[in-house]
Write a structure and sequence with these properties.
This protein has eleven helices and nine strands. It has a five-stranded mixed β-sheet with strand order 6-5-7-8-9, covered by helices on one side. A four-stranded mixed β-sheet has the order 1-3-4-2. Helix 7 runs antiparallel to helix 8. The chain is elongated and about 85 Å long.
Length: 356
């Protein structure tokens, strides 16, 4: 159990003022605050007050109290490493799932002031509290002790992992027949697994043995992506682009679909059709004798059975050269490259936003 070791106060006024300031900065969490020339033990050895086996504790110092608190919290947050990432929650399906409580995501840390929350990613703040502050008045220096209760915080992450793993299991039970909608289910599961990956990595820092246990129970994004690819191979998509005389644009779409795993087919009766058009306009030479060709690519992926649009996407740009023919060729090359770079992301995002 943690214990506080208050330092002798210089006067009653200082006690009242600092206590109020401490409570104001951390909400309902009581903070031990003091001034004086005798430094508390936790400044040199945090584990003397907060046992290492139970807490992660770091000390920060600065000329003002708020900056000292921020420095202390930053030290704990840094322990999680810069490589810990959470999946994007931009899709409508993820936002709705969070709202309905179907998936667990990180909540706000109301016990920390706004400056700390603005400077540190929210997912690195869970469980951190400011436990002690002390002012070295003669040297105009504030010290703050940030702590993270290992058991309590591990329980937060464990609970979120359990809820998310249950949702992933449910989604993986709904993968037949192979349609764009079952593909959407597995894509959604990948997003949840990406979040779980960050939670597991934090658990390894907080309680390594718990992290190892939950890692063994948690399916990885990579495993789910293989499932998504396998489903995609059973989904035929036919591609047709108007005004695409050399089929460069159609080929770029077919290659992108194939890279995602989809079965690009020549059959015009495929259950999914990608139709589109290519529009190219040419401009007269400029003062520098450069011809420009502007391109506009528009496409739509449609579910032929339900007549529902799966994805609508467009691409614009231009390229130039000393000759009109070369300008057009360069424009086609650029357009094809951008399709291969950008269309997969657009299709994946659209699939995640399909009504369920």
């Amino acid at each position: 159990m943690k214990r506080f070791f208050p330092i002798c106060f210089t006067c009653l006024t200082a006690i009242v003022t600092l206590s109020l300031a401490a409570c104001a900065s951390t909400g309902k969490n009581a903070v031990s605050a003091s001034v004086g020339t005798s430094a508390p033990k936790w400044i040199e050895m945090p584990s003397a007050v907060y046992a290492y086996s139970e807490y992660i504790a770091q000390v920060g110092s600065a000329a003002d109290k708020e900056s000292a608190e921020l420095a202390a919290v930053q030290k704990i947050a840094a322990l999680f490493g810069q490589n810990v990432q959470s999946a994007s929650t931009a899709s409508k399906r993820m936002e709705q799932a969070q709202k309905n409580g179907e998936v667990a995501t990180l909540t706000s840390s109301s016990g920390l002031n706004q400056k700390i929350q603005r400077n540190i990613k929210q997912e690195n703040l869970i469980g951190i509290k400011i436990a002690e502050v002390w002012q070295d008045a003669p040297h105009n220096t504030w010290y703050a002790l940030a702590v993270l209760n290992r058991a309590e915080t591990a329980q937060i992450y464990t609970s979120m992992l359990d809820k998310n793993n249950a949702t992933i299991k449910k989604l993986c039970a709904q993968l037949t027949p192979a349609t764009i909608y079952t593909y959407a289910n597995i894509s959604f599961a990948v997003d949840i697994a990406e979040q779980n990956k960050g939670y597991v990595e934090r658990l390894f820092v907080i309680q390594p043995e718990v992290g190892q246990q939950k890692a063994a129970e948690t399916i990885t994004p990579e495993e789910l992506k293989l499932k998504a690819h396998k489903i995609a191979t059973k989904i035929p998509v036919h591609v047709y682009i108007e005004n695409d005389k050399d089929k460069r644009i159609a080929t770029a779409f077919e290659k992108t679909l194939s890279d995602m795993g989809f079965n690009s087919t020549t059959s015009k009766t495929a259950p999914y059709i990608l139709t589109g058009s290519l529009l190219m306009t040419h401009t007269a030479p400029t003062a520098k004798d450069v011809f420009y060709t502007e391109y506009l690519v528009q496409c739509n992926v449609r579910d032929m059975e339900s007549q529902q649009n799966v994805c609508t996407w467009s691409l614009t740009g231009r390229d130039g050269s000393k000759t009109a023919a070369n300008a057009e060729n360069r424009a086609l090359i650029t357009a094809a490259r951008k399709i291969e770079e950008q269309f997969a992301v657009a299709l994946d995002q659209s699939v995640k936003n399909l009504p369920q």
